[in-house]
Fold this sequence. Notes:
By secondary structure, this protein is α+β, with helices and mostly antiparallel strands. Helix content is 24%, strand content 34%. The chain contains 4 helices and 6 strands; from the N terminus they run H-H-H-E-E-H-E-E-E-E. It has helices at residues 15-21, 27-35, 43-48, 79-95, and strands at residues 50-56, 59-64, 103-113, 124-133, 137-146, 152-163. The longest helix is centred in the middle third of the chain and has 17 residues, at 79-95. The protein starts with 14 loop residues before the first helix and ends with a strand.
Amino acid sequence: MNVNQRSRTYTWEDPIALRDAGATMSGLDYLNAVFGGKLPPPPIAQTLDFTGAEVEEGRAVFAAEPGEFLYNPIGVVHGGFAMTLLDSAMGCAIHSMLAAGEGYTSLDTSVNFVRPITLKTGRVRCEGKIIHRGGRIATAEGRLTEESTGKLLAHGTTTCLVFRP
């Protein structure tokens, strides 16, 4: 047995049931149900261990405590963690503006890394805000910060296609 070996176990609920539960709700009502615990979090939140912290029309905030299981081979948290938090916050900012029956999908996402994330970084906060909500296109911006100091870790923008299934 390798004395340096670690393990992590987590569970999640059926993502299709989660999607279907929100199909008739406005985006904001759906996100409030997920963030408030009335509906389960999506599997990606369980996988990367982050939570929805706040949501209002045009704005969504996620929080996480970076763990060792997120490290890459160079000894820092993998950039995909920051990208996923930004994608989630920006996407949910757009989702919060959707009417019942509307959906969205990402067309483009751009992320800029400002400083590395490590265990010493501590809890992080990622805020997404809507920039524009048109009939078919919506854009949002996001900022990932160190919660205790407010230092910027990464920032990004996204463009999403809004549709009715």
